[in-house]
UniProtKB/TrEMBL annotation, chain A:
Top-level taxonomy: Bacteria, Pseudomonadati, Pseudomonadota, Alphaproteobacteria, Hyphomicrobiales
Function: Part of the binding-protein-dependent transport system for D-xylose. Probably responsible for the translocation of the substrate across the membrane.
Membrane topology qualifier: Multi-pass membrane protein
Record field: transmembrane: 12-34, 40-60, 67-85, 91-114, 121-143, 163-185, 216-236, 242-263, 270-290, 296-315
UniProt-recorded name of the protein: Xylose transport system permease protein XylH
Subcellular compartments: Cell membrane
Annotated keywords: Cell inner membrane, Cell membrane, Membrane, Sugar transport, Transmembrane, Transmembrane helix, Transport
Pfam family, one: BPD_transp_2
UniProtKB/TrEMBL annotation, chain B:
Protein name: Sugar ABC transporter substrate-binding protein
Signal peptide start-end: 1-25
Principal subcellular localisation of the protein: other
Gene3D superfamilies, A to Z: 3.40.50.2300
Domain of life: Bacteria
Pfam families according to UniProt: Peripla_BP_4
CDD domains (UniProt xref): PBP1_ABC_sugar_binding-like
Organism listed in the record: Roseibium porphyridii
Length: 323, 326
């Protein structure tokens, strides 16, 4: 049974998560890192990243990248801000407009990738600049600002920014996205298509998998998820900002890879991505509970990430080699 | 072409025009502005100042800035170099990264391009041949914040820097730490990973962690309005609202409302709009009449606290972008 578990993509991430969590639990005695509030803290952090990381992971399993998620987060928060604050429009239609914009950016990415056959790494990197540039340019034309307040209704505040104690509702959104991602990847034909597309594109096409549709759908999903995060952050902080989300551009692929997804596609699991994201949340929040000199934080973060990926790789090879 | 220029220059010198009418040196070139990234609400307000003054004084100018803020230390000298090679009529520069930018400014002034520094570079403008400086001293801004907190009885102050590696911003923390130390107080200097500079959630969790690890902290100074909001949430989450004094550099509507509610103690305004507006005004007067202020024009810090927050909020509502974020 253990052997079977070890063969799963998330085994390495699980091991790395447990070790890292124990490390921080022991290194930060009496600071409340393991308390309910401390846990809510790293979960809040992981949830926002996790919501984009799951569709990004599915997309990477299908063999493509999406680096435009960062600017999509900022764009959707600014759509909410400009609509509600500058034009005084109600928040809900703006929420749907922001989601539609995210989906449209995803659709544009998907079409560009399948029509031009250019690497999605480059296509979406270009989109990332185009979207943040357009967001800033348009925001300035409309309101002469690149960050603006958001006026949200009580219902919108509940759906996107409710809190129980110190736990944000974004954690529930993360679980919902994870559940949907899991159902799609592991319990549907579409999931098989995703694996097939990323595993061997020509073979998949030969077997009748609509590879273009798979890729375009997944690009739309990443755009939607990024827009959702922009809405969550915007409503939570009462303001939109064109630069929100820029950190996710690389953090999302990082947690996906920690979670056991192969950079080359065709292999990975939603559980692994969730664990990878949780690991990232624990590291980047826990490190501050140690009270160490924060100049070293990125060095430490980098080392832990490298260790996590190596452990991941090692566990997987060990599991696959021995009968 | 080169010969032509030297002949003209010689003629100008003989006619006694060389020193008094720099405006005649290159009348055709544009006024170029090398300034901060417009994704920052702060520089949005600076640009609004440039725009308004340009309209009033009927000056054409071009704003040059980075869009990707991850490599600013090397990108800014490059942008400046490109601007100089266009032989501008006048150059208005934010000297954010002196190591790379100062030698270029010296080259420009040596070549006869009039340069005016704004925002950053207040200790350098005299040495590099610029005609003046409009802006604030980041060290003094931090120092003032430290003084305010020390006087209010803060014993351990945390300076939270969300953009480690930016020398100008870091100076604010240096000033804060110096003022606190002088008053015999303890300080903690905290940074965050560069990928999280625009993630308010990550900043909240970072500050929360530090507050948990170091319960003596009873004062926080942030270097921008967004981390100020994160700091307020972190204070709330560790259950120490009212016990920890939070102050910030720079403004936003959110920050102003928090001052009004009594959650945020103060915000330091370096009045970015004035930096842009006065730069164009000085450029206009210099190019046309050879006039300019002597010494540097200080635009900050103006301390905004409960005494003047209402007025500031009103301006922010009526004139979006003048005081920073809206």
């Amino acid at each position: 049974m253990l052997r079977n578990f070890m063969k799963r993509p998330e085994a390495g991430a699980f091991a790395a998560f447990v070790i890292t969590y124990l490390f921080f639990a022991l290194a930060t005695p009496g600071t409340g890192f393991v308390s309910v509030n401390g846990t809510a803290g790293w979960l809040n952090l992981a949830a926002e990243l996790g919501i984009v990381a799951i569709p990004v992971g599915l997309l990477m399993i299908s063999g493509e990248f999406d680096l435009s998620i960062g600017s999509t987060v900022g764009a959707s928060s600014m759509i909410l801000a400009l609509g509600t604050n500058q034009y005084g429009l109600p928040v809900w239609p703006m929420v749907f407009l922001a989601l539609a914009a995210g989906a449209a950016i995803g659709l544009a990415n998907g079409l560009a990738v399948v029509k031009t056959k250019l690497p999605s790494f480059i296509v979406t990197l270009a989109t990332n600049f185009i979207v943040i540039g357009a967001t800033m340019g348009i925001s300035r034309l409309i309101a002469n600002v690149t960050s603006s307040s958001i006026v949200a209704s009580d219902s919108a505040k509940f759906v996107f920014a409710a809190r129980w104690g110190q736990a944000n509702i974004s954690i529930l959104w993360w679980l919902l996205v994870a559940f949907i991602g899991y159902r799609i990847l592991s319990r549907s034909i579409f999931g098989n298509w995703i694996y097939a597309t990323g595993g061997n594109l020509d073979a998949a096409r030969g077997a009748g998998v609509p590879v273009q549709r798979v890729k375009i759908s997944l690009f739309i999903a990443t755009g939607l998820a990024a827009a959702l995060v922009g809405i969550l952050q915007g409503v939570q902080w009462n303001s939109g900002n064109a630069t929100y989300g820029m950190g996710f551009v690389f953090q999302a692929p990082i947690v996906v890879v920690i979670g056991g997804v192969l950079l080359t596609g065709g292999y990975g699991s939603v559980t692994g991505i969730v664990l990878g994201t949780a690991l990232f949340g624990v590291i980047s929040s826990g490190i501050f509970y140690t009270g160490w000199n924060t100049d070293w934080i990125q060095l430490f973060l980098g080392l832990l990430l490298a260790a996590a990926v190596l452990a991941n790789n090692y566990v997987r090879r060990l599991a696959l080699s021995s009968k | 072409m080169k010969l032509m220029k030297s002949v003209l220059a010689a003629a100008a010198v003989t006619l006694g025009l060389g020193a008094t009418s720099p405006a005649l040196s290159n009348e055709e070139g544009p006024i170029l502005v090398v300034s901060g990234p417009l994704s920052w609400p702060f520089f949005a307000a600076v640009k609004k100042g440039f725009d308004d003054a340009a309209e009033i004084f009927e000056v054409d100018y071009q704003y040059i800035a980075v869009t990707d803020t991850s490599n600013m230390t090397s990108d800014y000298p490059r942008l400046l170099q490109q601007a100089i090679s266009r032989e501008p009529r006048m150059l208005l520069v934010g000297e954010f990264f002196p190591d790379g930018m100062d030698p270029l400014i010296k080259e420009a002034t040596a070549a006869g391009i009039p340069v005016l520094i704004h925002n950053s570079g207040q200790t350098l403008w005299e040495g590099n041949g610029s005609i003046g400086f409009v802006g604030e001293d980041p060290y003094q801004m931090g120092y003032k914040a430290g003084q305010i907190q020390a006087e209010a009885g803060v014993t351990t102050g945390l300076c939270f820097n969300q953009v480690p590696g930016n020398p100008t911003v870091e100076e604010r923390c240096n000033g804060y730490v110096a003022a606190m130390k002088e008053a015999g107080k303890e300080t903690v200097y905290q940074t965050i990973g560069t990928g999280d500079a625009t993630n308010p959630q990550a900043m909240t969790q970072a500050i929360k962690g530090s507050l948990q690890a170091n319960p003596q902290i009873d004062g926080i100074y942030t270097l921008n309005a967004v981390p100020a909001m994160s700091a307020l949430r972190a204070v709330d989450e560790v259950g120490r609202k009212g016990e920890i004094m939070v102050g910030t550099a720079d403004l936003s509507n959110e920050a102003l409302l928090a001052i009004k509610n009594g959650d945020l103690a103060f915000a330091m305004d370096q009045q970015p709009y004035l930096q842009g507006f006065m730069s164009i005004q000085i450029a206009h007067q210099y190019l046309n009449y050879g006039l300019h202020p002597i010494g540097h024009v200080k635009t900050g810090p103006l301390v905004i606290d409960s005494s003047n927050v209402e007025e500031t909020l009103k301006v922010n509502k009526e004139h979006a972008g003048v005081r920073g974020a809206s």
